Amino acid sequence: MRDQLRVGGVSESVIDDAVLILSELLSNACRHGRPLGRGMVGDGDVRAAWHVDKTGRLTVEVTDGGGPTRPVPATPSVTAHGGRGLNIISALADTWGVRDDVHGEVTVWVVVQAGHRPEDFATRVAAPSAAALSDLALADPFDDLD
Length: 146
Description:
It is a single chain. It contains 5 helices and 4 strands. The protein is α+β, with helices and mostly antiparallel strands. The chain has a single domain (2-145), classed as Histidine kinase-like ATPase, C-terminal domain (Heat Shock Protein 90). The radius of gyration is 19 Å and the shape is globular. The protein starts with a helix and ends in a 12-residue tail after the last helix.
């Protein structure tokens, strides 16, 4: 994927974002989605695809057999082991959405485009609140010095 996108003129920062986004989409499909149905292309699998349009916008998408819920960003606790994927995608993407088809397949698509600055990611991802951090009950490194 990387080499083909480079040859196509896609910037390295967009490729890096797209690889992370693809990883998140595939993880979500494997964890929350059903495999594609019998008799379909990719029988028992998920399908990943990408496309660069004439303006240089890169679209990455992953299709699975659907799941029990719609893909929506979660609000995980600070100590949660998951639930951040779509928030990461939202921070990196220009836009994203969900497309359903008549066979029950669900495609999550994400558009990534050059032009965002690397520091944008930090400004679009909220830091945990002070109250959430205090709930962690972290040990003070100086407690043992008494």
